[in-house]
Amino acid sequence: MTEPLDWRDGQPWSRRYGDVYFSREGGLGQARHVFLAGNRLAERFAALPPHGHFTIGETGFGTGLSFLTAWQLFEQVAPSSAQLDVLSTERYPLEAGQLIAALAPWPELADPAAALCAQMIALPPGWHRCVLAGGRVRLTLLLGDARETLPEVTTTVDAWFLDGFSPARNPDMWSDTLLAQVARLSRPGTTYATWASSGVVRRGLGAVGFTVSRSPGFGSKWEMVRGEFAGSPASASGAPWLRRAPALPDARDAIVIGGGLAGTAAAASLAARGLAVTLLDRRSSLATEASGNDQGVLYIKPSAHGTALTDLSLSGLAFTRRELARRLLADGRAWSDCGVLALAHDLADADRQAALATLGWPTAFLRAVDAAEASALAGLALSSGGLFYGTAGWAHPPAVCTAFADHAGITTRFGANVDVIVRDADGRWRVTTSDGATVDAAVVVVAGGLDSGRLPPLAHLPLKAIRGQITGLPATPASIRLATVLCGESYVAPARQGRHWLGATFGIGDTDTGRRPADDLANIADLRALAPALVAALGDDVSDATRHAGRAGIRCVTPDYLPIVGTVADAHAFRDRFAALARDATTTFDTDAPWLDGLLVTTGHGSRGLVTAPIAGELIASLVTGEPLPLPERLVQALGAARFLARSLKRRRPVA
Ligand SMILES: Cc1cc2nc3c(=O)[nH]c(=O)nc-3n(C[C@H](O)[C@H](O)[C@H](O)COP(=O)(O)OP(=O)(O)OC[C@H]3O[C@@H](n4cnc5c(N)ncnc54)[C@H](O)[C@@H]3O)c2cc1C
Ligand SMILES: C[S@@+](CC[C@H](N)C(=O)[O-])C[C@H]1O[C@@H](n2cnc3c(N)ncnc32)[C@H](O)[C@@H]1O
User: Fold this and answer.
1) Is there a cis peptide before residue 234, judged by omega within 30 degrees of 0?
2) pLDDT(119) > 70
3) Is residue 617 within 8 Å of 402, Cβ to Cβ?
4) What is the rounded CA–CA span in Å between residue 387 and residue 374?
5) Could you tell me the pLDDT band of residue 654, with boundaries at 50, 70 and 90?
6) CA distance linking residue 240 with residue 640, whole number of Å
7) Using omega within 30 degrees of 0 as the cis cutoff, is the peptide bond preceding 616 cis?
8) Looking at the predicted structure, is the pLDDT value of residue 655 above 60?
9) How far is the centre of ligand 2, averaged over its atoms, from the C-alpha of 92 (Å)?
């Protein structure tokens, strides 16, 4: 739903709250006076050391003006190797067109505003990581009520922009609950500034541990409020295995094992933070195993009930889409944002689709379509409607991997089959390849798909293989009219370089990558059920096995079908330390898990690596550097690498 705005003298005014987004006397001047000067950002940015890092928290993103103003100042005065993270909450996001109109009055912000608006396309609910300024500035937008999203943040903010309409119009944004979260995410010395100066704001901030100083306000406003956190920092809570190893903010180098989607994405995110990355793969080029298909679909199957997989899929799809647009031309070779049409394949699926369509997500992201509209979108006759994911599409995974690995900070070595990973006495990790060569670094990220579990420190991960084969059929003049991806129980994509790719088979536990004609026939049978009109358009080649192409690969899945992303624990020490769980699963512990500091994993991306691996790469890099994470805490915990160790102890199964 479009957020209802009035435009008064060219400036947005919220009909929902009956309030202005920024001062009528000049939004840019207000942001500079209140938020930048109020937090002393010019001097603090300038004083950052090389590779320094600064985190801003904001309680109302609105038009993005305050964010853009901070970004502009950062680029002007911070050292060129320093990085900025901004976490901003927003319950009622504006659409890209509204943002463009609201920011139009400031030509000096035109370039960053255009870069921001290009990323604000049809965002579904949840957390959204936007990478800007070539990777130097990251915006993490927490869409939802700040009282619910801030408790999911685990980071320390350096400066707060408190801005959520006036306390009289929007008391929720100044409630004790919300200010307690602001305090929880602060450390001694964290500053805040706000134009709101009423007694309720001053008392609320003082009550949660902030100093409160009044200073002259912007324009005709008499005063504003600013101050510092003077309370005690919050301590970590929750089961130790749900937490993670301490970050390594001083790490300057990393080894990534695996040149598929997971490894190249992690390498890209680490390199963007200034780490020197050595990317190792046993093969002779990138993307030769699961990530080697000609076409993969950017497809998700969310639930209306907000599962961890749904949250990951929504954040992941939108992130991948932004990264593809940033790194690759949508030229029909590397990727296409042609949309994905999900056709209901049975009654339960139709019910699931109907429930999703009522959630009020942006229609440009997802909308229900009937058979007539579905046929118009697809360019060929379909007998039923479904859900249309307007920002999704397909990608050529090898092009995605190549784009991720294309960074001056990444050195790629092929033919490097890693057998051994050990930590030396000085704390550095050393990996040895089958030919005896060694490489060492502060951090190792294992992204070896199913074979991640062959490396001894990761042997406890319960990874399972699901073989899959896709089939390529020659396009015809009639079939190239297919304009969107079609998905049901199987999928088919618009033609890429003269072929439509369809698939894929599911062979649980099967690790054979040889191509099987019977699997091509199974894929074609599925296509007949999904899109008979396309089969007719493809003509006689459908039945001519000599015209079929195909490729098999192994998906790596986990027992809960969520990827494994995060820091790795020492399995044996874990079993010893938490043995009491086997007797009583409710036992609590005050010790930390035995983390292998600096060893991380990203695998188990199953059938959706295009959607999950890029955001997982961001998560890996943020865990290493200790910056704000791109995903909510409960989701980070759900992806954690130690979850299976704890589960198997609780179920009294032996840990490998
Ligand atoms: C048939 C099929 C269809 C699919 N369709 C889709 C789709 O439409 N959409 C989608 O999003 N996803 C799809 N997927 C899933 C997607 O391809 C995977 O999730 C993704 O490729 C996994 O990437 P990865 O980097 O984890 O694994 P991989 O791409 O397998 O990469 C692992 C890499 O690690 C290397 N390696 C392993 N061990 C070592 C070692 N010891 N030393 C050195 N190197 C090592 C390997 O050589 C390999 O290059 C499909 C998968 C298959 C098989
Ligand atoms: C005054 S505007 C912020 C202006 C913004 N700083 C800018 O640069 O445009 C306040 C914003 O807070 C958002 N908001 C209001 N209540 C919220 C809540 N409970 N959680 C998150 N955002 C909220 C509004 O939708 C609005 O966009």
Assistant:
1) no
2) yes
3) no
4) 9
5) low
6) 11
7) no
8) no
9) 7
C-alpha to C-alpha distance for 139 and 70, rounded to whole angstroms: 11
CA 454 to chain centre: 27
Q: Both tokens of residue 73?
A: 């100042």
From the number of C-beta atoms within 10 Å of its C-beta (0-12, 13-18, 19+), residue 79 rates as middle
Q: Are 475 and 286 in contact (CB under 8 A)?
A: no
Query: What residues pair up with 88 in beta bridges, in sequence order?
Result: 58, 141
**Starting from the edge strand earliest in sequence, which strands make up the sheet with 5-8, in order?**
5-8, 11-14, 19-20
201-227: pLDDT as tens digits: 999 999 999 999 999 999 888 899 999
Distance of CA 221 to the CA centre of its chain: 40
Place of tokens 């922009």: 161
Give the C-alpha separation, 86 to 84, whole Å.
7
- Whole-model pTM: value is 0.97
Residues in the chain: 656
Ligand 1 atom 19 nearest Cα: 609
Spatial CB neighbours of 315, under 8 Å, sequence gap ≥ 6: 126, 127, 128, 129, 615, 630, 631, 635
Helix (H, G, I), strand (E, B) or coil at 253: strand
Quick one: average pLDDT of 381-393? 95
Which residue, judged by its Cα, is nearest atom 31 of ligand 1?
260
Nearest to 311 by CA among 86, 157, 486, 152: 152
Q: Whose CA is nearest to atom 35 of ligand 1?
A: 258
From residue 194, alpha-carbon distances to 132, 149, 158, 301 in Å are 25, 20, 15, 41
Give the binding-site residues of ligand 1, using a 6 Å CB cut-off. 257-263, 280-283, 288-291, 293, 296-297, 397, 416-418, 447-449, 451, 468-470, 503-504, 553, 555, 603, 605-611, 613
What is the rounded average pLDDT of the residues 263-272? 98
Which amino acid would we find at residue 413?
Answer: R
DSSP 3-state of 448 = coil
Q: According to DSSP H, which parts of 336-468 are helical?
A: 347-357, 371-378, 397-405
CA of 513 to the centre of ligand 1 (A): 12
Question: Residue 540 carries which side chain, given as an amino acid letter?
Answer: D
The CA distances from residue 400 to 335, 366, 513, in Å, are 8, 24, 22
Q: Judge whether residue 652 has pLDDT over 80.
A: no
> What are the residue ranges of helices labelled H in 301-395?
308-327, 347-357, 371-378
pLDDT digits 0-9 by tens, 597-611: 999 999 999 999 999
Q: Which amino acid is at 146?
A: A
Q: Which residues face 549 on adjacent strands?
A: 472
Q: Helix, strand or coil for residue 565? A: strand
Ramachandran assignment for 497, one of left (phi > 0), alpha (psi -120 to 50 degrees), beta (any other): left
Q: What is the pLDDT of residues 288-338, one digit of tens each?
A: 999 999 999 999 999 998 899 999 999 999 999 999 999 999 889 999 999
